[in-house]
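Researcher: Good morning. I'm working through a list of sequences from a screen, and I'd like to move beyond sequence-only analysis. For each chain I'm collecting a predicted structure so we can compare shapes side by side. This is the next one on the list. No need for commentary yet; just the structure.
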Amino acid sequence: MMIRLLLNCAFTLLWLLLWQSSSFLNGVLGFVISALIITLASRVIGSVQTADTSAAASPSRPSVPVVGYALRLVNVLRFGVYFLYILIKANLDVAWEIITPGFHMKPRMIRYPVAGLTRAQVTTLANAITLTPGTLSADIDESGQNLYIHAMYAEGRDDAIAELDGLRRRLLWLVFGRRPDETPQEDPPTT
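Model: Good morning. Structure tokens for this chain:
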């Protein structure tokens, strides 16, 4: 995905240079056309590779369906809009706490299970939690099975877990392209 995004940005820059116009709308148009070209090229290359390897499929290398780059890009943007909503809501809660007298917080430490997630997924989830005002990913246990989160506004543990589950589901599905009930692909070994 990252290589395709960099390629998309390079094609967009080339588009702007060829048109000799650096307007915002021309940049958006170049980005969209580049994304569509990369999606079509990925599907063609993916279908050729799948046809070549389908006769000799090995159990160590299962066939993976080709998900269009444009669809992945749209899903990441959908997650961005959802995360922006959470961010604005949390900022308003913290601002309301600051400008009103009294103590309305209900702080709580929450042990949130992250078993079954890869290291990249746990890191992304922890960063999304920490970026949201009022929550902080404090630690992860040594086994990597639980994430410890400090929440300023957690009336009940079940409500806080439900909000974290919603963030986790959307993150896994929209950003990583994986349903939460699927088994994860293993992280490559570090050498």
